[in-house]
Backbone:
């Protein structure tokens, strides 16, 4: 009986740890900066995303980088589309935000536009 209770408690703690580690922060970073110039769009291949919580974590942490206008991550494709101002930030700072969140940057590339495929 004691072993069953101990096993149940351990499983419960593992479940709570997993829920916390994959939960993203739903708060959006307040962005009231005004940047001059055109933003650039880059696609980042990210390793390690397994759930929507991972998407939220990437979006929140990369979105905090000064000069990042928007971030859309998808765990299903393993990619994030990031719109940023190259005059303010660069891909190294974006990579640091992704790796600092616990994920791996596999590749930076220019997104394929729909007009190019038509």
Residues:
């Amino acid at each position: 009986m004691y072993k069953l209770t101990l096993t149940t408690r351990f499983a419960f703690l593992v479940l709570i740890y997993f829920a916390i580690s994959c939960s993203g922060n739903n708060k959006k970073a307040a962005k009231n900066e005004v940047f001059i110039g055109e933003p650039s769009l880059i696609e980042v291949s990210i390793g390690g995303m397994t759930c929507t919580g991972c998407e939220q974590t990437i979006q929140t942490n990369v979105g905090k980088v000064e000069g990042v206008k928007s971030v859309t991550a998808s765990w299903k494709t393993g990619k994030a589309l990031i719109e940023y101002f190259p005059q303010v930030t660069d891909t190294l700072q974006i990579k640091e935000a992704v790796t600092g969140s616990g994920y791996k940057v596999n590749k930076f590339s220019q997104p394929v536009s729909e007009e190019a495929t038509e």
Summary: The helical segments are 2-21, 52-63, 91-100, 114-117. Residues 26-30 have pLDDT under 50 and may be disordered.
